Amino acid sequence: MDGESAETKITLTLYRGLNGTNPGAFRVDEDGISVFENSLPDYKYNLPIRVLYRNEKVSGAIAEIIEPLLEGGIAEYTPQFGDNHWSLRFPNLEVPEIKSLLSKYAKAVLK
Questions:
Q1: Which ranges in 5-94 belong to alpha helices (H)?
Q2: Beta strand ranges found along the chain (DSSP E)
Q3: CB–CB of 102/87 below 8 Å?
Q4: Distance between CA atoms of 79 and 6, rounded to whole angstroms?
């Protein structure tokens, strides 16, 4: 062994609780869009979003969204906002575009 450990890759499914699938159902906060590692029972829908992160899950860790329809998005582990909380961001999109993209994805996934 050369003393270096292999990179660990972990796939997680994050959930966004929704009561509808239109663009207005998505609130974009300063930190992004809140998602959680567990489904949320108080909502009509739980929108699953798969992400891939490398190495340790520590505050500030960045994961790549691996859903083809959400290409280019990232998730940051932000436990300061709640247990198992992640913040989704789409760095190259404006808020209306993010809401439209997520609405389109929700309508495709939550048939």
A1: none
A2: 9-18, 33-36, 45-54, 62-65, 74-77, 85-89
A3: no
A4: 26
Q: How far is CA 65 from CA 52, 69, 89, in A?
A: 6, 10, 10
Report the pLDDT value the prediction gives residue 55, as an integer from 0 to 100.
86
User: Residue 104 in 3-state DSSP?
Assistant: helix
CA distance 42 to 59: 26
What is the chain's pLDDT, residue by residue, as a tens digit (111 residues)? 455 557 789 999 999 999 999 999 999 999 999 999 999 999 999 999 999 999 889 999 999 999 999 999 999 999 999 999 999 999 999 999 999 999 999 999 997
Q: How do the domains of the chain map onto residue ranges?
A: 9-109
Distance CA 49, CA 67 (A): 7
**AA identity, residue 3:** G
Q: Are the C-beta atoms of 105 and 93 separated by less than 8 Å?
A: no
Q: What does the alpha-carbon distance between residue 33 and residue 14 come to, in Å, rounded to a whole number? A: 11
